[in-house]
Amino acid sequence: MLPAWLPLAVLDATQAPSFEALHGELLRQWASSEVWRLSYGLRSVIVKRGTDTQSGEASSYQRFVVPLGLPAPELRYAAEGVIVLEDVGRVTLEQEPTAEGFVAAAGLLASIRTAVVDGPSDFPPARVKELADRIGRITFDVSPLVEALTRLQQEEPLGVVHGDFVPKNLVTDGRRWTAVDWPLAYTAPHLSDLYTLIRDAVALGHDRGPIVARYVEAAAADPFVVDRQLLVGGACFCLLALTFVVEEGQHTIPESAGWIDPLLAELADLVEQLS
Length: 275
Prior knowledge:
A hairpin with a 2-residue loop joins strand 4 and strand 5. This protein is 45% helix and 17% strand. It is α+β, with helices and mostly antiparallel strands.
């Protein structure tokens, strides 16, 4: 049965005569989001309803995706936490986690990161201490991260950070790759998106080298700077992930409580490398 909250825009986008004529496929149902693929004949759209951290996708589209022309699904409708999006493909990198797919995703990320954005950064150095205090379980000195982020902010341009650049959010139609799920997007000089992409690739047994090389080539970036942006980005990713788990995740995703200690260990290792 289709959800009762579907907007009439779905009928306009699919040209279906009624909701009863639609075919619905539930793609995701968490406490903070519900995602459907709705189709009529050859026409299909993605419909999402989000709460909490998942409710800001329309704002991310207005601030980043639309004005910068980022590689994301076209936004067809947005109101009251519900959005209707172009259906950009049925296969994710999570479903087919090939080495070639990860390399292609690095090229996709370069097209996002090279879009010019103005400051100030959404992740200033002061936010490191703020998040560490909110987490309340960090027993090591995070000042090396503060110092490294300060240098990056002074020396490198800001870019858009997708905020959840992981295989489940990288979709292909067989011709092109697209990044989906943008509610967590923000601006920063680090490369947490590339860090999470490599993190998942290595966990699957892929080599990080070609992924980094593809990003460096596509973004025309300095590999030494990219290495520093990766360390800082990885540490910032851990801080945000820990904050989410401590403040929200334990209530909406009970198993996320088991992520805390591994994330703390990962953060400590990255900060030590920055020392």
